[in-house]
Design a protein that fits this description.
Layout lengths: L1 H28 L5 H7 L5 H10 L4 H12 L19 H11 L12 H18 L4 H10 L1 H13 L12 H21 L6
Helix pairs in contact: 1-2, 3-6, 4-9, 6-7, 7-8, 7-9
Length: 199
């Protein structure tokens, strides 16, 4: 019995080590590495809900998956220190506003724990941001992290300087890193899961 228990512990430790190496190596290898490495580092869950939300709001499903990856790494029970909830880390007050605007009825904060509702509301926000910023994906993703007001100011400052909004126009290092992470994850999700996340 004791030997069996030791064997189980050793196998578990070995699997944990392999997954740890996969998570570390995948960003270096990109989608060109072995698929199991990439899929370990960039998991995909709730693909049906992602496709539905993306279809409903005319979004690239790989972009939705990338935002989920950056926000919660597909942990549907994630709660941030600011109170954002679920896969796409929606604040309850933001969700309440989205429910009003999108025809939701009898919304409660507990609804955000439902992956389908959470993804749908996150997709709604992304669509609003893309429309506000003329389809600029980087600006929309930046607003997901820093808010629409901040991004509107940064875009206006860039326009006043006579150029289009660029990554370096984002003054917050955290938001710049977030945008880079989502853009790279989108590429990986498109290349790795294109059959499950059709555009």
């Amino acid at each position: 019995m004791r030997r069996a228990l030791i064997a189980v512990v050793l196998v578990g430790a070995a699997l944990a080590a392999v997954i740890g190496v996969a998570r570390w190596a995948a960003p270096l290898l990109g989608a060109s590495g072995p698929s199991w490495v990439t899929e370990s580092a960039y998991p995909l869950e709730h693909a049906g809900a992602i496709r539905d939300g993306a279809r409903r709001y005319d979004l690239d499903p790989a972009l939705v998956a990338a935002v989920i990856y950056a926000e919660s790494r597909f942990d549907e029970h994630a709660v941030s220190s600011q109170g954002a909830v679920g896969l796409m880390q929606i604040l309850p007050e933001t969700a309440d506003q989205i429910a009003d605007e999108s025809g939701g009825v009898a919304f409660t904060a507990a609804d955000l724990e439902d992956p389908r509702v959470n993804i749908r509301y996150g997709c709604y926000y992304l669509r609003q941001a893309l429309d506000a910023y003329d389809g600029d994906v980087r600006a929309a993703v930046a607003s997901y992290n820093a808010g629409m007001g901040a991004v509107a100011e940064w875009r206006a400052a860039a326009a006043a300087e006579g150029h289009a909004f660029r990554l370096r126009d984002i003054p917050y290092p955290e938001t710049r890193a977030y945008v880079k992470k989502v853009v790279e994850a989108r590429r990986v999700y498109r290349e790795t899961y294109g059959d499950r996340l059709p555009r």
